[in-house]
Amino acid sequence: MKRNSLKILLTAGLIASSLISCNKNKILAPNYQVTSETVYSTAAGYKQSLAKVYGSFALTGNSGPAGSGDIQGIDEGTSDFFRLLWYAQELPTDEAVIGWGDPGVPDFHNMNWSSGNVILTGLYYRSMYQITLANDFIRQSTDAEISKRGFTGADADNIRHFAAEARFLRAYQYSVLMDLFANPPFVTDANAVGSILPPQTDRKTLFTYIESELKAIDPLLVDPKANEYGRADKAAAWSLLARIYLNAGVYTGSPRYADAITYSKKVIGAGYTLINNYDNLMTADNNNNTSEFIFTINYNGAKTQGYGGTTFMTHASVGGSMPASSFGIGGGWGGIRTTSALVALFPANTTTSFPNNGNPDTRAEFWTQGQTLAINDITSFTDGYSVTKFRNLNANGTDASSKDFSDVDMPIFRLAEQYLIFAEAAVKSGSAADLPTALTYVNNLRQRAYGNTNGNITSGQLTANFILDERARELFWEGFRRSDLIRYGLFTTATYVWPFKGGVKNGASVGDFRNLYPIPDQDRAVNPNLKQNAGY
Predict the structure, then answer these.
(1) Spatial separation of the C-alpha atoms in residues 454 and 446, rounded to whole Å
(2) Using CA atoms, how far apart are residues 435 and 459, in angstroms rounded to an integer?
(3) What's the CA gap between 211 and 43, in Å, rounded?
(4) Which listed site, 97, 369, 401, 461, has its alpha carbon 20 to 30 Å from 312?
(5) Which are the contacts of 11, defined by CB distance < 8 A and separation ≥ 6?
(6) E strand or H helix at 209
(7) Residue 61: its pLDDT value, please?
């Protein structure tokens, strides 16, 4: 059974009952069954409470893959963080399609979502919920509270580290809201529970807040690779800074490429290395990939049982003629595939072998047998190649802890992304001194993918457009593509179209307002402080 260093202790009922509430316009306290004075009376209690903050990444509290929830329409298809983030970041792009007609899901291919979309509403509340948990934990972890409760020495220091981690998690979720919704409501631990209707912030102000928070907690987080697996450290904060700096032109109107270089370089210099085999990135025992993984959402098929996260990734991508046992699952759901546009970024396949079809670039993890490259009917699983990147088997092919629920952890930050951030920032800034290093980093990725230097590129080939394509080859289905296409001005425009973009078989442009998602109707109905994003 797979190791989980960070014990996820958040109960299912806690998340489910707190996610959507008739008082959701107020700042909600976590619905603990015991008082805070009892919970936070011991160092162990603090760690258990911190685990609940982390646990909101992986647990949802509902019991069915779709349509089984009874909490105001919320089920695991509309309440799990990564599954919802994946929908929002991948389905409107050239990297993914889905055959299901569940409410809100087809809107992403068609790029015609509304402010009532249940998927977007679920993601918005999931991010706000983790912020709520983090705020409560931070309130309980001030120096005054630590002193009042009699903690000293190592226990007091550990609690301060815990508080810094909670601040990181809050900053991360605000970065998600900034990227997707731009102008969310804003609350921190400084706001007393239930005291206000949260005011709305704007994207530029939120960027400044996230940046300042990540820099403020830097000395309070433990050093890179010094924390338990699945918990944040300095490198996680640097990684998030590098990511938002790369997108700063979108968020603030002012590029910050030099800062993206600075912080990606800090991560790269912290001792991380690529694992040898790309095929092993998303396997059931990928908790062993600590040389490359910087921060992860941890899943365990015996303990974090739900139909989101990587259980969704390993099951929804299997169907048709694909043998479920080859993916470590009891049966596939026959849902998600990719488009010909992603496939075309790789060299041609030479065989139909599994997992990479004999492709010289081993990242081309597509299932082609029984599948057509072209998509004529988006509801038919056999239209479009399936993706074999996520497999609920150990790297040696042995079974995981469960065939129904995934052991595969989801890296939120890994070294490869930092290589690509450095390279893109160097190219776009024209930093001649950094270009040789950028070329080395890109070729490091390609040497792993090809197993030799056959895929290496020259300095003349290292262009911004090449890096965009390389990001797709390296990071596809990891939740980046929408943000990448927006950064390059390609998400909504006619400059680049792909199959079923805008709901049209051959692809079509849509209004630029689609670069942002709308603030959900449910929250605007109860919080008059919130104004809708333009176009909705």
Answers:
(1) 9
(2) 8
(3) 30
(4) 369
(5) 61
(6) helix 203-217
(7) 57
Of the candidates 144, 137, 10, 17, the residue with the CA atom closest to the CA atom of residue 69? 17
Structure tokens at 164: 């810094």
Contact between residue 20 and residue 74 where contact means Cβ atoms under 8 Å apart: yes
Other Cβ atoms less than 10 A from the Cβ of 143: the count is: 12
Q: What is the CA radius of gyration of the chain?
A: 22
Q: How far apart are CA 141 and CA 160, in angstroms?
A: 7
> How far apart are the C-alpha atoms of 252 and 202, rounded to whole Å?
10
Over the stretch 237-290, which tens digit does the pLDDT of each residue have?
Answer: 999 999 999 999 999 999 999 999 999 999 999 999 999 999 999 999 999 999
Contact of 422 with 462, CB cutoff 8 Å: no
b/e code 418-428 from CB counts within 10 Å (16+ = b): bbbbbbbbbbb
pLDDT of residue 349: 81
HSE-up of 418 (CA within 13 Å, CB side)? 31
Question: CA triplet 274, 417, 268: central angle to 5 degrees?
Answer: 60
Q: For residues 85 and 390, give the distance between their C-alpha atoms in angstroms, rounded to a whole number.
A: 16
Amino acid letter, residue 148: K
Q: DSSP secondary-structure letter at 74?
A: B
Beta-bridge partners for 297? 410
Helix axes 81-90, 309-316, angle to 10 degrees: 50
Q: How far is CA 278 from CA 201, 413, 474, in A?
A: 40, 15, 9
Nearest 5°: the CA angle 70, 318, 351 is: 165
Q: How far apart are CA 342 and CA 358, in angstroms?
A: 17
